[in-house]
Amino acid sequence: MATTIFQTPIKLVVGAGSVEKVGEEAAKLGKRALIVIGGSSAKKTGLLDKVSADLKANGLEVFVFEGITPNPRSSTVDEGARMAAEKNIDLIIGLGGGSVMDASKALKLAYSSGLPSFDFYSGKADSNAFQSKAALMLVPTMAATGSEFNHWSVITNWETHEKRAIGVPMAFPATSIVDPALTLTMPVSQVAKGGVDIFLHVMENYITHDAGAALSDGIREAIMKVVVEWLPVAVKEPTNLEARKNLSWASSLACSQAITFGGGQGYRPIHLIEHAISGLYDVQHGDGLSALLPSWLRQSMSKRSARITKLGKNVFDTDGDTADAVEKWLDSVGMKTSLSKLGVPEAQFAAAAQNALDTSRGFLAKDAVHNSVETITALYKAAF
Ligand code: NZQ
Ligand code: ZN
Fold first, then answer.
1. Domains 11-182 and 187-382 in one fold
2. How far is the CA of 220 from the centre of ligand 2 (A)?
3. What does the CA dihedral 165, 167, 171, 177 come to, rounded to 10 degrees?
4. Which CATH number is 11-182 given?
5. Which of 96, 181, 257, 342 fits as disulfide partner to 16, beta carbons 3.0 to 4.6 Å?
6. Residues 239-261, mean pLDDT to the nearest whole number
């Protein structure tokens, strides 16, 4: 039997209104805070002002680094690390979606080491060789990636178009404040993209692990059922806080070690195949996943029919075709899409497939179905 180790240093503060705790919690971690934000949402919603004021009221000096984009660039992260060094920062606060949170983790690595951030993602540098110069706090404004409750970070080198993920101890946040009410300002289309991402963080591991992990199967089915039921509610009723609470909880658990309780690790091939699409064409992560999902299920039936049929029965309550049921659900939240609708050029599929293999840390080469340029290209074609 494989050994499972569960260890997390993250203090997770969850609940509607928990954003009020940011100042109090931040004061326990540092004195000179760099708030990292995205394009404009944190300013427009007034969240940046509110958090800055709270930090100052708790005795912290506050600096702001703005401009993290979806599919965050390593070059932007490096600019942020330079600012952190200039201001002698001892606390980094990522206030935004997964892109901001991942970039904040990367910024911590670059600032602590003095190296370009992408060195850690390409495998050139090892963060364990460096002492941390700043604590990390994350405040998600979306329910999607679960970056707030894990040590994963995904950034893109825009010169080479490599989108790579790492999971390292230095990227663990010390504290994450998960306030579902902050997600109420998200456009409904973004809520839907995030919901599909949450679903896939669980579904991919559920389908790809070896059978014989009853408890983790149950945990994963419960999380997926919550997303399948509550995402359509969140999309139809944009002010429904109950729906946002359920999605925020699901988001934090879905991409954490919690889904490995009971054994049966599994992995995320659709994610690895999607990273090439968003790294090459700047497609949003949730859109790329949605385009690939039904075709991935259909093409995986040859090797994984028992797990896919179980998903249909236990999560979608169907004895029929699981991919059809999943596609219907995607349609119900406005996420039925295709690579052609997302503007991905068919002529480049082989290059994208090679990129996916190259950036997958060897995982795709071992996949039961999508393990070569030919098979991954066939998936892109089916999803076009
Ligand atoms: O940039 P701003 O203006 O803040 O707007 C953002 C952005 O345009 C907006 N937004 C976020 N919160 C909002 C809001 N707008 C209004 N109100 C709010 N409350 O939403 C847009 C998308 O944000 P982004 O952070 O890109 O989305 P998401 O959370 O889906 O993050 C995606 C990134 O995370 C990576 C993905 O690859 C992608 O780069 N992932 C990270 C993982 C991890 N660390 O564990 C795992 C995931 O599988 C994923 O790969
Ligand atoms: Zn994801």
1. no
2. 15
3. 90
4. 3.40.50.1970
5. 181
6. 97
